[in-house]
Amino acid sequence: MARPRILVVGAGFAGVECVRRLERRLTPEEAEISLVAPTSYQLYLPLLPQVASGVLTPQSIAVSLRRSSRHRTRIVPGGVIGVDPEAKVCVIRTITGEVTDRAYDHLVLAPGSITRTFDIPGLTEHARGMKTLAEAAYLRDHVIAQLDLADASQDEAERAARLCFVVVGGGYAGTETAACLQRLTHHAVKRYPRLDEREISWHLVDLAPRLMPELGESLGRAALDILRRRGIEVSLGVSVAKAGAEEVTLTDGRVLPCRTLIWTAGVAASPLIATLDKETERGRLVVTPQLTVPGASGVFALGDAAAVPDLAGGKEGAICPPTAQHAQRQGRTVADNLIATLRGQPLRPYVHKDLGLVVDLGGTDAVSKPLGIPLRGLPAQAVARGYHWSALRTNVAKTRVMTNWLLNAMAGDDFVRTGFQRARPPALRDFEYTDTYLTPAEVRAHTASLRASAG
Ligand SMILES: Cc1cc2nc3c(=O)[nH]c(=O)nc-3n(C[C@H](O)[C@H](O)[C@H](O)COP(=O)(O)OP(=O)(O)OC[C@H]3O[C@@H](n4cnc5c(N)ncnc54)[C@H](O)[C@@H]3O)c2cc1C
Fold it and tell me: Which atom of ligand 1 is nearest to the CA of 331?
């Protein structure tokens, strides 16, 4: 008898956790497992700002999917561009651009999220995100290039614009990115005799009245104090009205001449979710507490792409925040529920009480709230790094990260510009491939044509 086909979409926190558990708990005879992934690694996103600032090398947070010969999951290199839940088929664009199809009996949807953008003129052309490894590596090169170019320029206005950096988004991603990169420029400028540190300006802006509200009033204020002490100008209740190649206009009317706009103002579910034509909540696919998708037989969804009921949060109708902490644990629940489905056993609901937040602001600056305990400074930094280090999946990744941290602590930052930049500066839309997806009607037409040619 043919083995049931399990297809997992997305090799992030949720997808990889699910696949590894399935491999451990199912015998090869019980199911065939495939994983569609555009890259051959799982990206440890929370440490991305440290790649941008050069504390960690890109390879250290790219955890290989193929490292161990124990793993038997078939990896399909590419991205799913449409799902037809009625026909039980995924349409895949492989990394060579070829469009293929894959039928499944059980589907696990974990494609994560993309940077959330708004209808702001010039945003997708001129802003840079912090969501992929390429973006972080690019941003590092770009920031160092601005120092080089400012140093080389004789034009006062150009120098000022190149030394002005704007980060939008006061959540943990934006705050960490601004803090880590400011620290980089602070150290780097000493190696540029023609530049004065006072010429460099960093701006962090957010529409919300507070930074990282999930930290609570006092820790949020502590983070704000650290940033302001470092000279970062934090503007709350403000966003971007217009973005251009050489300036950013804020909603309070200020026009900042600058060549660097970093956009980290939240995430939106992967556009893949819209191709299913099923119910969504704020763009995330609605799922049951058992993480199944209503009206789509055999489909589970989880992580940033799914609106998972937060049963432990205590608030009626709440959904889990898009964090790695939840995504990874949901991966385990989906694996268990999929195995229960195959074995005809009852499914269990996903319940996880949030463990708190850690925010690494570079050096010994940090704030964290593990299990509700507010920490700052060195203890917060130890908790933040200890948490991330222990969450890395492989010993090789753990060793790389620890070695990088020790090296950075002893030898300090380095300011190498690798020169990988393209002539036309790539922006948000160049990194996240958001225009590759089919519409629900196109997916159905595609699978109908498959059926016709098979018949
Ligand atoms: C800068 C930054 C800092 C963060 N810090 C923290 C933190 O400190 N703590 C925390 O808990 N969370 C943090 N997060 C959030 C956390 O990283 C996400 O919530 C988590 O990665 C979500 O896991 P996921 O598996 O749903 O998605 P991801 O981990 O993003 O994985 C999705 C995977 O799917 C792949 N994919 C996308 N589209 C397709 C497709 N069409 N077909 C096939 N594959 C596809 C992607 O390439 C990716 O590999 C941070 C995020 C960022 C960006």
Answer: 25
Q: Which domain holds residue 398?
A: 123-265+356-421
- The CATH code of the domain that includes 144 is 3.50.50.100
| 165-210 residue pLDDT tens | 999 999 999 999 999 999 999 999 999 999 999 999 999 999 999 9
For ligand 1, atom 7, the nearest C-alpha belongs to 46
The set of protein residues with a Cβ atom below 6 angstroms from ligand 1 is: 9-15, 36-39, 45-46, 48-49, 79-80, 110-112, 130-131, 172-173, 270, 272, 303-305, 322-325, 327, 358
| CA–centroid distance, residue 83 to ligand 1 (Å) | 20
What is the 323 CA–ligand 1 centroid distance (Å)? 8
Give the largest CA-CA distance in the chain: 75
Check residue 425 and give its pLDDT: 65
Q: What percent of the chain has pLDDT above 90? A: 84
Q: Whose CA is nearest to atom 3 of ligand 1?
A: 46
Q: What is the CATH number of the domain that holds 281?
A: 3.50.50.60
Ligand 1 centroid to residue 57 C-alpha, Å: 19
One-letter identity of residue 331:
G
Structural domain includes residue 435:
no
156 and 238 together in one domain: yes
Task: Please tell me the chain's helix, strand, coil percentages from 3-state DSSP, rounded to the nearest 5.
Answer: 40, 20, 40
pTM above 0.70, yes or no: yes
Ligand 1 atom at shortest distance from the alpha carbon of 177: 1
Note whether 150 and 229 are same-domain residues.
Answer: yes
- Sheet harboring 74-84: ordered strands across? 99-103, 89-94, 74-84, 32-37, 5-9, 106-109, 299-301
Among residues 275, 298, 301, 268, the alpha carbon closest in space to that of 286 is found at: 301
Is the same domain home to 136 and 239? yes
Q: Whose CA is nearest to atom 6 of ligand 1?
A: 46
Do 190 and 70 reside in the same domain of the chain? no
C-alpha 264 to ligand 1 mean position (Å): 13
How many Å lie between the centroid of ligand 1 and the Cα of residue 37? 13
Distance 225 CA to ligand 1 centre (A): 29
Give CA–CA dist 264/123, Å, rounded. 12
User: For residue 399, how far is the Cα from the chain centroid?
Assistant: 22
Instruction: Say which residues have a Cβ less than 8 Å from residue 409's Cβ, sequence separation at least 6.
Output: none
Assess if residue 156 is contained within a domain.
Answer: yes
Residue whose CA is at the smallest distance from ligand 1 atom 39: 111
Return the ligand 1 atom nearest residue 42 CA: 49
